[in-house]
Amino acid sequence: MSKGGFMKDALVLCAITLVAGACLGGVYEITKAPIAAAELEAKSVAYRVVLPEAAEFVADDLTDVIAAANGEIAGMGFGNVTVGEAVTGVDASGAPVGYVVTSTSNDGYGGAITVSVGIQADGTVSGIEFLTLAETAGLGMNAQKPEWKAQYAGKNVDAFSVTKGGAAADNEINAISGATITSNAVTGAVNAAVYFAKNCMTQ
Predict the structure, then answer these.
(1) pTM of this structure
(2) Would you say 108 and 182 are in contact if contact means Cβ atoms under 8 Å apart?
(3) In terms of Cα–Cα distance, which of 107, 112, 110, 127 is closest to 194?
């Protein structure tokens, strides 16, 4: 191939790359707002599910508090987990009724697991709801079944633990059959949320 032909091909390839990049950029700008809106709505739904007694949710700037807490959580044996955000649930009069803490475990079998945990003002877990769960169908995905998630609700403990032999105490969670990794990952994320609510939201 001549030098001129090579340069022509290079220019064509460059033009195609520029056009493709512009198109992708345009698609991103078009879809960015709807995706963000969908994610916000998913979080709002999760908040209402896990802390139904709240009339609305108030988000303060907790950036520094979360960063410090994640440093502490890293050494607590909850696995590779971090708290991402937290809001205070208030009743119609504006009085706090509890908190919703969203945390992520990177120990899931299929990837990161993100869960919103409702925690009442007295430290009792009122419920959990998944924002991200991509575990094995028929095994780890059973974590989203209401009867499994309900094991955490109504319990006021400092940390949960997973058992395969049947839960005999408030702090014990029955492992999902064939999905102990998922069970441990979810429980680690819940434990991080509980720790944060009890030690960082009430100070």
Answers:
(1) 0.82
(2) yes
(3) 127
The pLDDT tens digits for 54-73 are 999 999 999 999 999 999 99
Helix (H, G, I), strand (E, B) or coil at 96: strand
- Return d(Cα 105, Cα 188) in angstroms, integer: 7
- Residues 186, 105: contact at Cβ < 8 Å? yes
Rounded Cα distance between 131 and 128, Å, is 10
Q: How many CB atoms lie within 10 A of CB 95?
A: 9
- List residues bridging with 173 in a β-sheet: 162
What tokens does 116 get?
Answer: 């919103």
> DSSP string covering 35-81, please?
HHHHHHHHHHHHHHHH-TT-SEEE----HHHHHHHHHHHTTTTS-SE
User: What are the two backbone dihedrals, phi and then psi, of residue 77, each rounded to the nearest 5 degrees?
Assistant: 80, 20
Instruction: State phi, psi for 80 to the nearest 5 degrees.
Output: -85, 75
Go through the chain and tell me how many residues it has: 203
C-alpha distances out from residue 169 to 144, 157, 166, 180, 186, Å: 22, 10, 9, 18, 18
Measured CA to CA, the distance from residue 83 to residue 68 in angstroms comes to: 10
User: Which of 190, 203, 195, 160 has its CA nearest to residue 69?
Assistant: 195
